[in-house]
Amino acid sequence: MSLRHAILTALLERPSSGFDLARRFDRSIGYFWSATHQSIYRELATLEREGLIESLPQPPSRGKRKLYEVRLAGRSALVAWLGQYEEPERSRDALLVRLRAASVVGAGPLVEQMRLHREAHEERRAEYLEIAERDFSDPHPDASAQIQHLILLAGVGLETYWMTWLSDAIELLSEVDRSGHAEDQ
Amino acid sequence: MSLRHAILTALLERPSSGFDLARRFDRSIGYFWSATHQSIYRELATLEREGLIESLPQPPSRGKRKLYEVRLAGRSALVAWLGQYEEPERSRDALLVRLRAASVVGAGPLVEQMRLHREAHEERRAEYLEIAERDFSDPHPDASAQIQHLILLAGVGLETYWMTWLSDAIELLSEVDRSGHAEDQ
DNA sequence: ATTTACATGTAAGGGGTTACATGATTTG
DNA sequence: CAAATCATGTAACCCCTTACATGTAAAT
Predict the structure, then answer these.
(1) Where are the alpha helices (DSSP H) in A50-109?
(2) How far is CA B47 from the centre of its chain?
(3) Distance between CA B171 and CA B135 in Å, rounded?
(4) Residue in B100, B148, B158 nearest the CB of A29
């Protein structure tokens, strides 16, 4: 149920088309809730059917921009959702599952994969820092900007965390590799 | 595709029933890939149909334990999967989506939710530390134990990270609340 | 004998991904 | 006018979750 509320949030800030939303997701809400254009279009259709958003009147045709804006019912639904408590989800990380498998059948090419993951996290971190500098360097930000900055910093911190953990992991796996393989246990 | 490989890993360590796996997942692989008993039973059935695992011959009946073990093809499939590179997934966190919404419609009861999340992360962290002390205090662990310890420490670090970030976030949101609401922007 | 814990499943539905289809607009 | 880019959608499938159904074994 998060995608629809992410969409409502984005549309409240600025009426947009599905295509716009897809692009905006890639560099803001998408840090913590990525979405493909297909899922966005589907959710937009559902939201409109339910009367939470409406498309600005334009001749509807396939290749034409279709702008949506949030109706009052949509804003209420968002506020209501904001009030619902959800337990924190357990994270799902295929790399950790691979590492767990490596503890049984040997690391194989996993160390190299971890190096690539570390690079990916480095790049993502750099990207976030760039955005932070560009969009949140105002010395007297309003409340909204402060919160958005905080969210971005959550991303920076997470990427940093994985970078350091991966470095430790790579080091340990390399040592283990040198001094007898896991398979031999 | 991670669940099946998590299951193969667990079964390689010890032939188990679906019920066993569900319990073992709760306190090991489940740190990074949780699974309900329903999904485990379904995947076990699929794996058996595909010939990657086999059930030990016993009169199959509904309320009776059904032990599975991994066949050679299953081990090969696991090793093959281990060699496949996957990009790191973007994390999905409904709380961050809520916070993003709060930057538009105001924080409302979100601070209290964040306190509860912080508590949940504290508890999970304590749980992991307990397991670490109980299972990984051997001064000369073998390679497999070292890797499993490393995975557990990834969990500890993540929980710690979210605890500190949430503390910062709660503090900022409280300040923002005191000095004029986000809604008023 | 009944309750509780153990154990295995089925069914429906939600939400997401990948692949594919199609039209409109801009640029060389 | 051809190609690239912008833009909206459909269809099939995958994996997971929630709710429900059912049977066995141990404890009181």
Answers:
(1) 72-82, 94-105
(2) 21
(3) 36
(4) B100
